[in-house]
Amino acid sequence: MIDKRMAHPADAVRDVSDGATILIGGFGEAGSPIELIHALIDHGAKHLTIVNNNTGSGQIGLAALIQNRQVSKMICSYPRTANSMVFPELYRSGQIELELVPQGTLAERIRCGGAGIPAFYTATSVGTPLQEGKELREFEGRRYVMERGLQADFALIKAKRADRHGNLLYNKTARNFSPIMCMAATTTVVQAGQIVGLGEIDPEHVVTPGIFVDRVVEVSTPAQESRLVKEGVCYP
Amino acid sequence: MLPMTAAKHEQQGWSRAEMAQRAALDIPDGSYVNLGIGMPELVAQFVPEGREVIYHAENGLLGIGPDPAPEDIDPDLINAGKKAVTAIPGAAYFHHADSFSMIRGGHIDICVLGAMQISKDGDLANWSTGAPDAIPAVGGAMDLVAGVRTIFVLTRHTTKTGEPKIVDACTFPLTGQGVVDRIYTNLAVLEFVEEGLKLLELAPGVDFDFVQQHTGVRLIRGPQLSEVSP
Q: What is the pLDDT of residues A149-181, one digit of tens each?
């Protein structure tokens, strides 16, 4: 029997080891798996490389993970956000590494990582500082830069609905990076607002097929990042 | 002439809204359009009646609707600037790899972006000053200029200190090389053509020499300065 359900976020991240690379879903607060990130803070794994479009806000979720000094390196496209103080301070004082990747290149690197494609060529960043050190090649008279697929040890994902096989649905633009991140991690951990019975998600509507998911935890009333930031909440 | 009044504030030429309105006139019916953060977002308000235009948010939405009422704000429904939006009937949600396939694959017709500098060859710099203490952040700007077929730049003609933004060569880090098609400023509408940068249209109360004085590139005089050439 296949049953990917777990009782608590803590169980779902218990085997994250120091030095792990972790894909974290979300674009700003939309789709950010705050409860899983907080479980990772409680767990305490260090020297992590985190892949996310941003670097969190306030002192909760991803920003709190960074503030807790568990992150050595961020791979992201836009580390500047409203209410984002933690990352800029550590970055300016040289205490955290940044690999800046154009947003679409980041998405395609993750997609390729999950699809077994080690590298690809894109016109994005050609002739800019972000092309430096990368192989260039010409196709049909246009220059392209080679980018590498990106794989990770874990993915932490927020979904709207899941079943015990790990089939997932998302909510609106909270989908963002999550479906491709599910594909690119050795172990994909999902917090879902609701876990439903098999067949209750119409196969025509499944966004992430369960084959890409390893663990599912129900978090029925997930925290809302902007509300926590507004209330000045700090984690832990 | 365009249905526009002279700017009310001290700035010469078109106001921000009028610049956005001018750019909107050049978006054909049926276009799929990506609007950058800030002033480009205003363009959506001015698309002429009778044209259906679909707006793309690169975080995963085709069909951005009007701003939500405060009670309708949904933190899971945002645009690329992380602002709450709505979705029109007929909208679609999708993941980031699909969203950037729309961009990189040439499916988005027009992108309207802001600029820090534009060079005589149509190079664009709009993501970083390159200052040593700046936190570099690029987002989707490089993907958009590399992938979208037509790039409109919407920007004030000069910097806050009055320096030209259209320059011989960009000094800020580039977003892309030779990517800009048209520039809409408070002073003029300009287009990159084979021979260089052509001035197509002047804002009210502005003449060719004035625009040339505030531009770091030698301009080509368009044939019909007072007419809109779509």
A: 999 999 999 999 999 999 999 999 999 999 999
- Residue range A5-120+151-230 forms a domain whose CATH class is alpha beta
**What's the 3-state SS for B192-218?**
EECCEEEEEEECCCCCHHHHHHCCCCC
Give me the CATH topology for the region B16-221.
Glutaconate Coenzyme A-transferase (3.40.1080)
Taking a C-beta distance cutoff of 8 angstroms, is the pair A159, A193 a contact?
Answer: yes
B139 in reach of chain A (CB within 8 A): yes
Which among B76, B138, B143 has CB closest to A78? B138
Q: What is the ipTM of this complex?
A: 0.96
- Domain map (residue ranges) of chain B: 16-221
In this complex, do B140 and A81 lie within 8 Å of one another by their Cβ atoms?
Answer: no
A144 touches chain B (CB under 8 A): no
Interface of B with A in 49-78 (CB under 8 A): 57-61, 74-78
